[in-house]
Amino acid sequence: MRVDVVTIFPGFFDVLEVSLLGRARERGLLEVHVHDLREFTSDRHRTVDDTPYGGGAGMVMKPEPWGLALDALAAQAPTPPTIVFPSPAGELFSQATAQEWSEREHLIIGCGRYEGIDERVFAYAATLGEVRLVSLGDYVLNGGEVAAMAMIEAVGRLVPGVVGNPASLVEESHSDGLLEYPSYTKPASWRGLDVPDVLLSGHHGRVAEWRHEQQLERTRTRRPDLLP
Ligand code: ADE
C-alpha cells in the first residue's frame, strides 16, 4: 500500500520511522511519502492561506497549492486514489473504515490547518478519486496531522504482513463490534490480586464463554452505544 501525506508540517510524520510501522516500511509492505504543501506554492512567501470570503475569524487554506499537489500525486497513481481529508466536520473514523482502507492500493491524506480548506478543493479532488472527509471524534484538533497519524497507524497495522500474528487482530477491541476482554499474565497472584480461576482451569470452552461475557459486560458499562 502507498500513502501520500500532504501537510505544512512534514516533520510531524518523522515518528513513522520508528516502531511497527517503521519496520513495515523497511519491508516494503507500506510506503509512506510525506509532501510539504508549500512546495506547491509559487510566491516568494510560499503562502498557503488567505482571509475567508464573507468574513469571519481565522484563515482558509487557498485552493491553488492543493490543486497542484493533488494533480502531482494522483497522476503517479495507477488507479484512482482514495483522497482523505481529516476534518472535525467529517464522518466518524472507525475500525470498519480502517479495514476498508487497508485493502486500497493508494491513499492520499490532505492535512488542513487553520479554519479549514477552500471547499472547492474537495470538489476538485472528487474528479481524481474517491474523497472522504473523516473525523477522529467529536473534539477539535489544531489540524489534520495528529488525526492522519492515527489513521495511518490504524490502517497500516491491518495491511497483511504488518502485524506478525494475524490472530491478534481478530480478538481485539472493535473487530467484532465489542470491546476486548481483559487479559492477564503471570504471576497468578500479585499484590493480593488474583487472576480469575477460569483462566487457570485449562478448559477452553469455559474460557471462551467467560471472555465473551466480559466483552458484553464491558461494552454495556463503558460503551452502551456500540450495542444494538
Ligand atoms: N482536524 C481537526 N479536528 C479533527 C478531528 N477531530 N478529526 C479529524 N481531523 C481533525
Summarize the structure.
The chain has helices at residues 19-26, 63-75, 95-102, 120-125, 145-156, 167-170, 197-200, 204-222; strands at 2-7, 31-36, 49-50, 60-61, 82-92, 106-110, 130-135, 189-190, 193-194. By secondary structure, it is of the alpha/beta class.
Tell me what you see in this structure:
The structure is a single chain. The mean pLDDT is 94. By secondary structure, the protein is α/β, with parallel strands linked by helices. Helix content is 32%, strand content 18%. Helix 1 links the parallel strand 1 and strand 2. The protein has a 5-stranded parallel sheet. Helix 3 crosses helix 5. The longest helix is centred in the C-terminal third of the chain and has 19 residues. Bound molecules: adenine. The site of adenine (ADE) has 12 residues, from strand 5.
Helices, by number, come to 8
Low-confidence stretches: none
Strand order of the largest sheet: 2-1-6-5-7
What percentage of the residues does DSSP assign to strands (E)?
A: 15-25%
Order of helices and strands: EHEEEHEHEHEHHEEHH
Structural class determined from secondary elements: alpha/beta
Largest sheet features: 5 strands, parallel
Number of strands: 9
Terminal Cα span: 34 Å
- As an assembly, this protein is single chain
Bound molecules: adenine
Radius of gyration: 22 Å
